[in-house]
Amino acid sequence: MFKNIRQLTPFSLMLLSISFIMSISQSTMTTAYPILMRNFNVSATTVQWLTTGFMVAMTLVMPLSPWLLDNVHLKPLLNSIVAIFLIGTAIAMLSPNFLGIIVGRLLEGMAVGALFPTFQSVIMENTTKGQRGLTMGVVGLVMGSALAVGPIISGVILQWVSWRALFALFFFTLLILIIAFQHLIKNTHSINKSNFDWLSAITLVGFGGVLYTIASLPSTGFNLTSCFILIISILLLLVFIVRQQKQSQPFLNLTVFKYQGFLPGLILTGISYSGLIIATVLMPLFYQRVFYLSPLWSGLLMVPAAIFLSQLNPRAGRLLNQIGLKKLVYIGMSMMIMGYSLLALAGTTSWFYGLVAAMLLEGGNAFVMMPSVTAANNALPKNLVSHGTALITTMRQVIGASSVVVATILLTFFNEHVSVGQSLTQTSGWFIIVPVIGFLLATRLQSHSQQQI
Questions:
Q1: CA 382 to CA 401: how far, in whole Å?
Q2: C-alpha distances in angstroms, 401 versus 237, 291, 318?
Q3: What class is the 2-194+249-442 domain?
Q4: Mean pLDDT taken over the chain
Q5: Which residues lie closer than 8 Å to 256 by C-beta, 6 or more apart?
Q6: Contact at 8 Å (CB) between 439 and 333?
Q7: Could you list the mean pLDDT of each consecutive 10-residue stretch along the chain, which spans 453 residues?
Q8: How far apart are the first and last CA of the chain?
């Protein structure tokens, strides 16, 4: 793993370091929910907005990243993104009330939403097609490991210190990194200035509306209000799509869908991300509610899966050039099918089976997510890479959020009829459908000799 990391340029390593710290913030708050509910006397529905609001803010900003890259030099852009994250973190850390934490999380989400597609686009633009597989494998290591270790870090910190220490950790670590790395930031992306299209920006609210509706379903159900929000959001997105096709320099250049190989890569990325994020949702529930382990041990038992993921990501990136995306997807989806099957059949038998299942789910993600991102963007000319990356990261968030909602709905439904353990195993059984769809989609991919990788 470290050998693969050393092959990257200092500039790429700097981007990955900053992205890793900001990525961890995605998955740390769920462990702190019970503490925050007690401290601020808020309900489970309200506290969930720390994650839901974060995801909505991310999704709203992601489609703007190509325009930001084309109109703002990378150094001031990156510094601004980190500054927004630091401001949000400071507000959340020092806030005397829950509303302040929500505001801080929204600012953090906006910063992460701008950073993810930006840093992936920049790294890909500065890497030859032959090296992209390995490089994006290391990017996958950072993204996947950060999501996986978030609950681990928060579990350890909350065992002994205040929840405010979580935000303090992000704040001071990121502040030190951005100051230390100033000399490494290079303006490598070509500036191609265009006017900011305010109408397109307003219609982007549709992405947030769709994600809000999806994320709110478990708590509010599909009522008249959510139905109205969803319809308005879809109409806004339709206006956005039509407008992008008429603009000479659109926010998102939708011609990326005309390139063979892009759409399958986008869908496969979302499916594999679903497996990763569902593992981080289901496994703590298995450990804590079936085997009655503490949050600390629940977090520590996720370590083997995180290590397995970090070891496989660079290897999968290298294999992309050797055996092609199709075979990698077969391997990854097969591992995810086995992971869900193990949870469905033996999840309540021993925590050890849960540990192995988590390793299979996260390991399967390594063989699919970043190789799919790489293959999808390799099908595009260089000037469209930032647009392709923005679309992939946006849709990955929507698919990931949808998966969490489906899991929550299934768990709630099964809990009304069977025990907690059985509801978890049955939910796992239903999620076998997701990698099966990915496996079937892989049959439609071209052979290795025909892929543009």
A1: 30
A2: 18, 27, 29
A3: mainly alpha
A4: 84
A5: 262, 380, 384, 387, 388, 391
A6: yes
A7: 55 84 80 81 78 84 89 92 96 93 94 89 78 74 70 78 89 93 82 85 86 75 83 92 86 88 89 83 82 78 82 82 88 94 90 91 89 87 86 85 80 80 88 92 66 42
A8: 22
For 128, residues 6+ apart whose C-beta sits below 8 A from its C-beta are: none
In this predicted model, what pLDDT tens digit does every residue of 326-376 receive, in sequence order? 999 999 999 999 999 999 998 888 999 999 999 999 889 889 988 888 888
**Whose CA is closest to 453, among 350, 341, 371, 362?**
371
Question: At which residue do the structure tokens 């990356």 appear?
Answer: 389
Spatial distance between the Cα atoms of 387 and 396, rounded to a whole number of angstroms: 14
* Torsion, Cα of 80, 86, 388, 188 (10° steps): 40
Q: Which residues, including other chains, have CB under 8 Å from residue 352's CB and lie 6 or more apart? A: none
- pLDDT tens track for 99-118: 999 999 999 999 999 998 88
SS3 string of the chain?
A: CHHHHHCCCHHHHHHHHHHHHHHHCCCCHHHHHHHHHHHHCCCHHHHCHHHHHHHHHHHHHHHHHHHHHHHCCHHHHHHHHHHHHHHHHHHHHHCCCHHHHHHHHHHHHHHHHHHHHHHHHHHHHCCCHHHHHHHHHHHHHHHHHHHHHHHHHHHHHHHHCCCHHHHHHHHHHHHHHHHHCHHHCCCCCCCCCCCCCHHHHHHCHHHHHHHHHHHHHHHHCCCHHHHHHHHHHHHHHHHHHHHHHHCCCCCCCHHHHHCCCHHHHHHHHHHHHHHHHHHHHHHHHHHHHHCCCCHHHHHHCCHHHHHHHHHHHHHHHHHHHHHCHHHHHHHHHHHHHHHHHHHHHHCCCCHHHHHHHHHHHHHHHHHHHHHHHHHHHHCCCHHHHHHHHHHHHHHHHHHHHHHHHHHHHHHHHHHCCCCHHHHHHHHHHHCCHHHHHHHHHHCCCCCCCCCCC
d(CA 365, CA 35): 31
Q: What is the pLDDT of residues 113-134, one digit of tens each?
A: 999 888 888 888 777 777 777 7
Q: Distance between CA 54 and CA 60 in Å, rounded?
A: 10
Place of tokens 């340029």: 9
